[in-house]
Predict the 3D structure of the following.
Amino acid sequence: MTDPIKLTNLTRHFERGGMDVQALRGVDLSIEPGEFVALVGPSGSGKSTLLNLLGGLDRATAGELWLNGTALHSATEADRTLHRRQRIGFIFQSFNLLPRLTALENVAIPLMLSGVGVAEREARAKNLLEKVGLGHRLSHYPTELSGGEQQRTAVARALIHNPSLILADEPTGNLDTKTGEEVMALLQELNREQGITLIVVTHDEDVAAYADRIVKLRDGDIVEEVKADNPPSPQPSPLREREPMSPPPVRGRAREGVKSGGLQMSDIIRQALSNLRRRPVRNVLTAGGVLIGIVTLVAMVSFGVGVQREVQRNFESIGLENLFVRPIYDEPDAFDPFAEPEPQTPITPEMVAQIEQIPDVVSVTPELRLPFSIDIALTYGDTSLPIRVTDGNEPEFSFGTEPEPLAGSFLDTRVSEGTVLVNGLADSLLAEGESYDNLIGEEILLTVQLPRGETESFPSQIVGVRDGFGGSIIELGLAEREAILAWWFNEPDILQTDGYDGLIVQTTDLGAITAVSSQIEELDLETQSLEAILNVANQVLGLMQALLGSVGGLALLVAALGVANTMMMAIYERTREIGVLKALGASAREIRALFTVEAAMLGLLGGFFGLIFGTLLGRLVDWIGHRFLIAEGITGIGQLSVVPWWLAVGAMAFATFIGIVAGLYPAARAARLDPVAALRHE
């Protein structure tokens, strides 16, 4: 510092309980560079207020305060922050070391706030702690240090960034006499050998005697200035061999005059992680709220994605060039609502042949379904078992990859006849030592029973065995089903009277759909393209995903309240720490960033584990669903719970965003804390 400190008619008033408290009443004072001044006086005399004004922690009500050419009385908050960061070293009565940091880390804080790299600042802090006799206590926390060791650590922290002015507030107030003398000798030696301006606030005359000049205050006024006649001779201290240290690098100007070389994002993240470890149980429970929301979101949306992909794949496997043809049915009979509706134009075998002749038609596959409640038993040799029939003659939406038969072959689509067994049923028919191949070509009887008790048997032949869950499922050929239906309804020419239930018409390509559809509709049949069905299905599934995702979103909004509450509690617990960081040069923006990153990490932590558990939950439900569907005869099912990369990234990003949003208000509140009030917080 090359210019003197000048105070001209400096005034500071406070509003407390509706009263105007005059802490300073027009103080005039000048302090020369390198001078050691002691401010003494009783409590309430204005000593600490004056010290806070000199350190840029507070702003004068009136008057002027010039420090090394800077008008602190009119400086912006950003300029006062820069003033504290570059020029001021604070030493507090209660040490104000951060409890979660080691001695080395505490000393390095001013350099961290100036943007100095980890390796350089730790090397400089280690060197300085060795100079003050604490080289053996580098990794110890404040609670593991004695009072004298804590104050020497605080002195080292005040010196680490080579300040031009050191402000010490009752530096021996919490020390015994011997330790207090050692600390004052250290400060006096620092003043004389390094030429640093030193201002000490004290009520102890013995401490004041170390100064070059004593300024006595009472009721906010300077009542006396005394030159020290015989200041104590400095005793040898660890600082005697301390070499000058270069100031931290400055990297250009940022907004509002604050240097860009401030607290780096890597340090913000490192400090945020350290702070989150303070209350692990509380933070884990808070992150658990986010976790539940993400689990819900991922599990539900993954099913929407998986089902949509399966539907898309199966539609494409059948071919979007297919048309579904159905007869048009008469309106239900008002006098007999239980009567089966009659088709206006039955789809007879002759009509099937006519449709096959339409240009651009590749194939026509009839559909013929058995009544849902039909009672059928399968007899093979001496074994008779009840069975259920699936429609094996028509192309199905076979979810998953197309399965291979375990033996024999599957049914043909047009003129199919025969029976395909699931492996569970086939096992019941095998004799000891036989394989599935032994069943292929064997004759069986299918016995059908009417609701009123009559029975009829229909012969068939086993043509294949497929994989499946359950022991009572078969696929039955078109010829057998036609014979069963003719007997069931007592209509020998059932295909001529009632016709097929529907057709699947395959065209040459998607462009032929419209022309073929028009010609089929001229036969008084209704058609629907697979593409139209797929579009509707995608719309429904998209809506389902949005609805399922909204459930997880609501859970995350509730979790955001927990994050906000946790951050508010953290601010209350760390108010004094925030004051210390601001005194050492942290800006409001950096404090805000620190708490915002902590909140974001809570969200990210919940999002990460929520993604894992949500994926596992989806897979578990998927596995259970597979078992159920296979039991119902639906085989070859693909994975229905799918977590694509965009869902994983989006879930974690959304969880982090929720954490940030929840932390905005607490972070802003922390940034607005008055450093003077924060330092007094207990």
